[in-house]
Here is the input.
Amino acid sequence: MLVLGIETSCDETAAALVLDGRHILSNVVASQVEAHRRYGGIVPEIASRQHLLQVLPVVREALERAGIGLDRVEAVAVTRGPGLAGSLMVGVNVAKAMAFALGVPLCGVNHLEGHIYAAWLDARDPEEEPGFPLLCLVASGGHTDLILMEGHGVYRLLGRTRDDAAGEAFDKAARLLGLGYPGGPAIQQVAQGVEPQESLPRAWMRGTLDFSFSGLKTALLHQVQGAPTASGPRHAPSHDRVRSLAAAFQESVVEVLVAKTLEAAAHVRARGVVLVGGVAANAMLRQQMQASHRGLPVLIPPPPLCTDNAAMIAACAFFRLRRGERDSWDLDVTPALRLG
Here is the structure.
């Protein structure tokens, strides 16, 4: 089955063509980073207007790269949530119009579930190796969730962040350090090869599989501000100290994510770990998860498939469609949609 996927949940306009839920024929992403950089974060109104401008050209480019005409598309998949309401509406309405015009099934996809299915793309089949159940760490945007995947479409939420998600924490930390937006890549770049001179706290949330990064962010703020002086105002940290604090912050986030994920995997006797979402593109997190896996297979998509893309949406839709699931023309967006 050839599925056209459309993704507009946040600030990436994406379209992809995926065959049988596994094989990427094209995967086009138009980034809005430059449009939002000056604001230090995503402005919802700007994001939705950019999607309106970009979505049809992106779909056309995906078809051209695949060398496929619209007449060969057998289903249209689209992110229905979670995400920004205005952004989601652009994608959902375009997908509905295309599916109706082509006379093919429409499939609304949970963005978080889509991230999980990035592990199925152009790699070994997790259903066969290592097989279910799989422990999934989904670290994407405002979400840091530990989800047990017991089969296709069968999920159980084990833990989630109680405040800031890891991705949000990276963005806020980068802003405090004056590193710009987006925060994750900026912190990774300046922290590369740096041995931190400071130690920042870890919120272990003992007795639960939940996360918390708000306290870490506050601790970083105190370090950046420094102690007040009698001689005058506080001074901004030096470049070397910014690098050290960035490395300490990254180290703290990664240590907690890895430890909690492996604790959860052992607790539920998972057969493997799947690490997905934008934060999964972080090199230190990928390295530490691979190095500390305790014998469990660890599946991590390549970085371009960790960040928001439409191939993962099309892949997820294939497995839903294979189960006979379809959406009707009254499909609506659900900005606070959950998984598990």
